[in-house]
Amino acid sequence: MDYATTKAWSYGDLSDIPWILWGYDVNCQYDRHHKERVEASDYLSFPEGLENKIYYAIGTWHVHGHKPECYPRYATTFIKGSGIRSAEILESRWSQLNPAASSLRYMTLAHRAEMLDALMNDINWKTMVKLAGDIISSFVDALDSRDDACLEFDKLDSTCSEELRAKWLAQEEKAHANRLQDVKSMDIYSSALEQAPALIEIEVQQMDKELEEGNVGLTTWLVTGIEIQQQQIRLKAAQQKHRSPTPKQEVELSRMKEKLVQKLDKLMSSAEQLFPALDFDELEYREAAVFDAIMQSPVPLPSQLKGELPPALKQAAAVELELRIGEANDALQGV
């Protein structure tokens, strides 16, 4: 790749260009030592001054599969003057090559490679011949959509205060001024959202609190109950997926039920130790939303009880609420 780029940039006079935009799928890794590799080579070199004018970009088809920080650093959306370009070559040709698939699939490997090379060469030639016309038509399309874009931007901009606008403009100017030297300056475009605490984090906090108070076991018992409920839901989903199960699938479902029963029995034993004054068999539970005997077995958590809670479970209810918030945060992060 070093050879290909340096040789491509050596054709023609690039001394007067302000910058060059180069899109490559893994530029976030490739650009790190690009200059050092070329300078260390006896056979490669940049055109004079060009090494400090390269905007390394990642195509919009690939950048969303990278780390979150790659988006503001390398997406063409944030490179002034580039426009929102795909920066892709091969992937954009797939739709043009698809009609040839029915013929290519019956060819030998060598014949197929030869045919694909011929098709790509033809596409590349047509691209070069039509390049000027395509640029003009793209410019006309951009002008047509510019008014609508400006209108929508003005609506958004009108909600911003002068103080905040001035601050953002200064940050933007600084980021773009430093981008060629340090691409991390573009991180100001990243969303700085504080993530809500996960279930496991809340579990640790509650367990530490219990250790300080000398009353351990409640949080672990509640988390086990939540895990049992999640396991009941997974079992229900597995049964719905395999409505006519094979013998192997029946065995897997039976094993899931076995584990569920064992875990539920262990939970009930722990409940008797934590709440010796309570008779869980006499408590009234909410109706389960599932209809299998094992899946419908009530989990004796405070949230599953009807009516007023017994005094012994009021502290457990407060802790369960915190844990449920963590469970919801995990679910939202997984969307």
From TrEMBL:
Pfam families: KDZ
Record protein name field: Uncharacterized protein
Domain of life: Eukaryota
Organism: Candolleomyces eurysporus
Stored InterPro entries: KDZ
